[in-house]
Amino acid sequence: MSGAGKTVCVTGASGFIASWLVKFLLQRGYTVRASVRDPSDPKKTHHLLALEGAKERLHLFKASLLEEGSFDAAIDGCDGVFHTASPFFFATNDPEAELIAPALKGTLNVLESCAKASSVKRVVLTSSVASVAINGRPLTPEVVVDETWWSDIEFCRKIQAWYVLSKTLAEDAAWKFAKEKGIDLVVINPAMVIGPLLQPTLNTSAEAILNLINGAETYPNGSVGWVNVKSVANAHIQAFEIPSASGRYCMVEEVAHYADIVEILGKLYPSHKLPEKCVDEKLMPKYQVSQEKAKTLGIDFIPFEQNERFLAGGAVGGSLGEWPKVGRKMEVEGEEEAKRGDHVGRHAQELFSVDNMSGVGKTVCVTGASGFIASWLVKFLLERGYTVKASVRDPNMWYPLIDWLKLLPSYKVDCLLLLASDDPKKTGHLLALDGAKERLHLFKADLLEAGSFDAAIDGCEGVFHTASPFFYRAADPQWKGFALGYSMHRIVVASISGVPAEFQPDACEAELIDPALKGTLNVLGACAKASSVKRVVLTSSVAAVIISRRPKTPVVVVDETWFSDPEFARDMKLWYVLSKTLAEDAAWKFAREKGIDLVTINPALVVGPLLQPTLNTSAAAILDIVNGAKTYPNSTMGWINVKDVAVAHIQAFEIPSANGRYCLVERVAHYSEVVEILHKLYPSLQLPEKCSDDRPHTPVYQVSKEKAKSLGINFISLEESVKETVESLKEKGFFSG
């Protein structure tokens, strides 16, 4: 953990960017001193105090931007300072008092405290692309803005761009002060920052999206740079940790006109009423902002469309649905309240009407709800307003076969199944989700028991069947004896020979195929009985698509018309592949016979952050690489982020035209590429340097994204997915880093 033993200060810690910065710093092991205006105000501190590691390593300090010496106590003894606190809004009656003074004087007050503290090695300042690009120079499609640009102070005054002026003056003063006092200063210049909210209050950039989906008749005539809040928070930390980091870093994933945003929202949420015309007739042109310097910090930008999806369908909707009352205040980056007198003080339902919560009044069932994918699916369904009936197994103790673990050292390990049933650890993370208290209902169900799902499914409009055991037979020596993890209610320790018959591969086959095949038919049987069910979404796998004797080479493009060959899978003893192939094939036949509207999602190896407190197979694949493995597998896999998979399930249910199968593969990559990504992200980690065998690397191939994109899926990059997985493994305590 890169921050272990180090102390840093974050000013304006309750703000949008700062909250994510505090979260990521705590995840990395830092001790964080967080300055806020009023530590006793739970609206400003509760979400921070609830963060993982906050109890042990988060300390709140009272400080005000306009009060000299106010930050001395918070900064004294710190290794680094992140100064984020500054007001952010555009309309003001008194720009000097409300914007310029807090930004300029506040920045100098913080830097003065840094100059007094000999412990401070570097200061990272949150500036803005507003201090870069506004100078009267034409911004046209061929223009590339970079860090050498500066906004023009007189031009800003002339056009009364007061926020731009405040950021430009503050950053300029910061550079002069740092040079004079010998402070090592790095500046982050983000564009319009969007993405999920940690804080319980609405910020300016989120409100920009909210206005579009909440009844606006027109959209603004503006071409704006956009970037995800998590990318910005990570950039701050990288700018502090990387010794060679220096100067300014523009953070812009994409420059897009509001017309582009409306188009994206229309595809993602076709039922929403969106503005159909611009406030002006002639649209402002787009331009470019260089990403070259930002990429030297190791930033892999989250796709622009992904940011929009989080705001419109998830974070904003879910958060607002829980607010008893909010004021419509434009964002304050940090603690300076916007004293603008235009708070409307209306209920959250008025700010975000139930029409925008696509699941309000609807009930759905999720089987195997405690699993990796299913947990995210439940989370997103609750955020959209659905009532969720979640099936889990009986919360009993471990099955007695746990005693066989003691035998492992005396056997050659090939395949051992350790059965377990659900315990409170399988449901606690679900019950803690926003909206769970009111709209999540747990049901006991077993895949192999006919009629077991009837009660959970009865009365539901939709069913998401995710429950199925997931593990592989590990032939590679590096996997011997390694606990691959589990999905639902099976744990795999690897393969076995020389042990009692019940642990031989035949048992592995039975423990995979029966739950997958019979379980799927039992669930569909319950759906056929329930006249309320309008559609079933089945979690299949790309394993049911690609495994056959057909060659896969770089020029081959796999798509939804492919089906894995059951006999080939049986010959190769690929029991997981066989189980998913047989289950999906049986599902399609049953659905046609019974007239069930079925859609299947076929994801590749699913990685990304864990909600559940237990290790799953795909996360374990990453954990093994970062946790001391000597070699990496000679294997080429498709990879996909769990959040994309969960959203695809919901879109497949909500979009009337959705049908058939949907392959979900962001990228096909050899494990060597994953190791390379990990090395760039975590250069200090000891990673495997060679493959597990001397044979040529298995070739990459392609998987078509065309059909998946019709669901509005804009894939999270493999780099971001790998990083989220590792950070989540750290947060959950599986890996110290």
UniProtKB/TrEMBL annotation:
Instruction: Spell out the Gene3D superfamilies in the cross-references.
Output: NAD(P)-binding Rossmann-like Domain (3.40.50.720)
Keyword Flavoprotein in the entry? The reply is no
Entry's EC annotation: 1.1.1.219, 1.1.1.234
**Which EC main class describes this enzyme?**
oxidoreductase
Q: Does the keyword Nucleotidyltransferase apply?
A: no
Q: Which residues form the NAD-dependent epimerase/dehydratase domain?
A: 8-242, 364-468, 495-658
The UniProt catalytic activity note for this protein reads: a (2R,3S,4S)-leucoanthocyanidin + NADP(+) = a (2R,3R)-dihydroflavonol + NADPH + H(+); (2S)-flavan-4-ol + NADP(+) = (2S)-flavanone + NADPH + H(+)
Instruction: List keywords of the entry alphabetically.
Output: Flavonoid biosynthesis, NADP, Oxidoreductase
Question: What is one Gene Ontology biological process annotated in the Swiss-Prot or TrEMBL record?
Answer: flavonoid biosynthetic process
Any one GO MF annotation of this record: flavanone 4-reductase activity
InterPro entries registered for this protein in UniProt: Epimerase_deHydtase, NAD(P)-bd_dom_sf, NAD(P)_dehydrat-like
Q: In which pathway does it act?
A: Pigment biosynthesis; anthocyanin biosynthesis
Task: State the family named in the UniProt similarity comment for this chain.
Answer: Belongs to the NAD(P)-dependent epimerase/dehydratase family. Dihydroflavonol-4-reductase subfamily.
Q: What does this protein do?
A: Bifunctional enzyme involved in flavonoid metabolism.
The protein, known as:
Dihydroflavonol 4-reductase
Species per Swiss-Prot/TrEMBL record: Escallonia herrerae
From the broadest rank down, the organism's phylogenetic lineage runs: Eukaryota, Viridiplantae, Streptophyta, Embryophyta, Tracheophyta
